[in-house]
Amino acid sequence: MSDSPKLFDQIPTTFRLKRYSPKTEKFYLYYIKDFLRYHEMRPPRELGVQEIHEYLSLLAGRKHVAASTQNIALSALLFL
Q: Of the N and C termini of the chain, which has fewer Cβ atoms inside 10 Å?
């Protein structure tokens, strides 16, 4: 077992250090978790541009989200 912090333990700390708003944190966490669930919880380091493109296409195509929502999801994934 590793002593290094888990991903979802590190994210809130990073948000606080960067002074992100609680609302931004809420949305980013939602889209990060949704992205990882969509890709069957594969480690983020195994996911790349193709997987991000697939996920954003899902949001636009099947979930019919607005372009601004896609931009928020993309920002969350870039943060990740």
A: N
Give tens-digit pLDDT for 2-31.
555 687 778 888 888 999 999 999 999 999
- CA dist., res. 29 & res. 27, Å (int): 5
Distances, alpha carbon 35 to alpha carbons 30, 39, 48, 77, in Å: 9, 6, 12, 8
CATH, domain 8-14+21-79, list 3.40.50.720, 1.25.40.10, 1.10.10.10, 1.10.150.130: 1.10.150.130
Query: How many whole angstroms separate alpha carbon 20 and alpha carbon 40?
Result: 28
Name the token pair of 9: 């333990």
